[in-house]
Every structure is written in structure tokens, then in C-alpha cells.
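From the pipeline queue, job 12 of 40. The input is one protein chain; the requested action is below.

Action: predict structure.
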Amino acid sequence: MTDFITVNNNSINIEEALGLSVLQNDAQFAEMTVGAMLLQQYAEKIGLSNSHEELQWAIDEVRYDRGLESAEKATKWLNDRNISVNTLRNYINTVLLRKKVKDSITSEQIKLHFIEHERQYDEAEIYSIRVDTKELAEELYMQVSEEDENFHLLAMEYSQDEVSKLAAGYIGKLKRNQMTAEIESAIFKSDDGRIIPPIKTEKGYNLFMIHKIYPASLEKEQENIRLLLFNKRMNKLREQAKIEYDILRAK
């Protein structure tokens, strides 16, 4: 059995190392290998592959990006990282296949998904003030809604959220599925510039100011949807696959 790693002249072979990884529930290497195999099997099934020219072009790009024009430099770079030419080639083959499989998801499939889930892609750009008590939240709400106090200055003074506090309460753009049902309902039925009355959350009481509502856009979301559909496809393949860790079988 080939040695996998040598530490202070003591070696462990690949079988022992991978077996320990699986038993310790840290089988990232094994999972990545399974994913690569499933991807290659699926690509072959739908008639996708990489030509020799495509692989060579991609390998050359890796070399040139790292200043490895000469064979000597390339060999040293590989040796320093304990990588064989064949391993690099297999990795690049998987990367290229992944892109081809992802790109095989059609515009019609993306559009259909968007139509069925359009609401979840709505976004709201919001600011927040989070405090510990309902009384303080109501007091701050009265100050900004009735006394024209500056929401951003109050956020920097009172908010308990240390991250958004430093940004004058700015949270950023959130989609519906990134909010609780109560917050989603309050925000998306309101208009730009609206201050939302206090809402109880897991960490306290929040006031929200809506900077802008952005309706869902297919053009903006199509690449995100393509990646989502690709990941769903790979997850389904994994669920259906018969995966056995032969290395753990008794001999």
C-alpha cells in the first residue's frame, strides 16, 4: 500500500488515513471524491466530455497564471505540492465538466423555476436598530416617527448589534427566505422609507427602516438559479447513488 503522509520519518498509508477520516466523521476527502465521480458519471450519461485540446488549454492556463512557462518550473511547482501531472489533469477535467454540466441547465428550466418561486427572490434593503427592551424600542420608534429624530444616529447610539451599529444600522439586502415570517410580512407590505414598529426577535426588539424594495428579476437571478438547480441535481444523484466505503470493510 502506498504511503500517504510521512511525518518525522513515520508513515501512514492512504487506506489507514482515509479510514480514520471516515470513522471520525471528517470524510471531506471521501465526499469530494464521491462528488467528482458522480459528476463524471452524469456528464457521460448526458454526453458531455472534455477534449484533449480543452484539457491541455486549461492546464496551460494554470501554468501561465502561476508563471510556470518552463517545464522545469512546472515540475518543481508540482513536486513542492506533492501533486502528479495526472492528478492535476483529473482535477482540471472535473472542474471543466462541472461547468459544462451546470451550463447544460437550460434557460427554460431557469425561467420555470423563477416563475414558480418568484416571490422568494424579492429583496429589501434595510436598516435596523436592535435593543433589549420593548419599552426602549417603542421610545425610539416614537422619536423617529413623531419627532423626526435621525434613525441612523439612534442606531449608532443605541443598537445592540455591534456590526450594523458601526454602519449606522445598515443590514443590507435580504430576500424573503432570509427573514422570519413576521418580519417578512411587515417589510414587504410597506413602502420605501417606511419605519416598521418594534418587532420581537430572538435577540431583542428591532426597529426596521426600509431603504428600498427590489422586486424579483429573472435577469438578475438566473445564474444563482442555475447554480441552485445544479446543486439540486447533484444532491439527487448522491441520494440515489449506492456508496460504499470499501476501505472500512473487514478483510
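Job complete. The chain has eleven helices and six strands.
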